[in-house]
Write a structure and sequence with these properties.
single chain; 144 residues; alpha/beta; Rossmann fold; 6 helices
């Protein structure tokens, strides 16, 4: 059985993706690991909990999922990993909850996640990366 690596990608932050490429490629070479890329579409209540405004006119969820998967696959082309070992997942909801759920269901041997440098909002609200580190049942590599 090959290793499973989960790589959550924020498709709205290409700099995050660029930061983790070399780490993912290095880990994927070990035992010809399967790499599962995940992007999460935050639900409206999640945005509201962050105090973010949103318009009344939003695209439908099917349209958002399709567009997100297309963007995720486009970003994944930057990784030197054979296509037959790349898998793509799009979920809706709280990013940390969806990352943890997929890590458990795969089951992932490793999660590689990019994170912002800590600031005051991280201390007050916590971050997705911090929640994944705290609650994941597998190893987590946080790249800053």
């Amino acid at each position: 059985m090959s290793r499973m690596i989960l790589v959550p990608i924020d498709i709205s932050d290409k700099e995050f993706t660029e930061r983790i490429i070399s780490h993912v490629e290095s880990e994927a070479r070990i035992d010809d690991a399967e790499v599962h890329f995940l992007t999460v579409i935050p639900s409206l209540p999640y945005y509201a909990s962050l105090g973010m405004a949103y318009t009344a006119e939003l695209p439908g969820m099917d349209e958002l999922r399709e567009g997100s998967e297309t963007q995720l696959k486009e970003l994944a082309k930057q990784f030197s990993i054979p296509e037959d070992r790349m898998h793509f997942h799009v979920a809706e909801g709280s990013p940390k909850d969806k990352i943890l759920a997929l890590a458990k269901s795969l089951p992932a041997d490793l999660v590689i996640i990019a994170s912002h440098r800590p600031d005051i909002t991280t201390y007050l609200l916590g971050s997705n990366a911090a929640a994944v580190v705290r609650h994941a049942e597998c190893s987590v590599l946080v790249v800053r």
